[in-house]
Amino acid sequence: MKKTRFFSIFLIAVILGAVWFGSLRQVRGHNNQTDPNHPAAAEKKGPEVLQDPNSIKGDNETGNTELANPLKENPDSRLPEFFDICDKIFSSYVTNEGLVQYAALRRSRADLLPVMRLMREIDPLHLMSLSIEGKTAFWINVYNLCILQLIVDNYPIQPKWYMIRYPNDSIMQISNPWTKNYFWVQGLQYNLEEIEQEFLLNRTQDPRICFALSNASLGGGRQRRQAYRAENLDQQLDKQVRLYLENPIGYQLDQPNKTISLSVLFQTKRATFLASEFATIKKFRDYPDLQRCWLNFLAKYIPQKDIEFIESNPCTFKMISYDWHLDAGQ
Q1: What is the mean pLDDT of the chain?
Q2: Residues 78 and 227 both lie in one domain
Q3: Residue 218 pLDDT > 60, yes or no?
């Protein structure tokens, strides 16, 4: 009797347990489907991979591939507008001699606001779609615009009593002009040194750019009255170098004393010269590496009669002091 009773109780417990377990599974299954944060609600996937806008993406069903062009998805690139505004600014405030009318630009400093705002809002994906020439032209224009903005923000420049090594109107009278003043580009902040090194000299290893960047000084490269553009970049850079070397601040050849005088800019930018194609040319091999590199560079731009003299007469080098006076024009 006791065994029969025990068996009945056990059987009832088993049945009730089965009913309760089934109900619990149904409730849990319902909760899993309705809670969007529950792991079971999401389809099992591998790790998320960020899409490179410049990579090739494929169609799994058709096997077709196409270039992932950011301009195709967002054709509203503002880069053409940027280059056009640069043309307007440079042509309005840069003289034929490459000097800048800072006083006039200071009075009309609102003219810089649209291009500086546009520079900040440029979509990085649109810049990525440009050729290397297009990117280089963009960053040269950015650097030269930032120089204009820096001078205008501090114009007229107030000399500091302890900066006696530099002229009163020099950019060097501005506190840490190259590293402590920041400018918005593509939604990020950069200083002048970062723009010059990271986006121009290190990437291109092209010494010509050293003569295209304005340091707001008479000893540096001159501003142009037009924006740098990809389609004309080679010609524009070559012209900048020739203009610089035609000026006594850049290059002089003293034949009687067999002396080549170069701007100290050649020395301060020696890393760029040594990393360039001119360092690999097997000519002027009797000179130290850096001087050989300079001569191979000069051979492309100075008069042929100068090159013939240098080839026939071992020369010594002399550095021309850098002129830090502001490149201001009327």
Answers
A1: 84
A2: yes
A3: yes
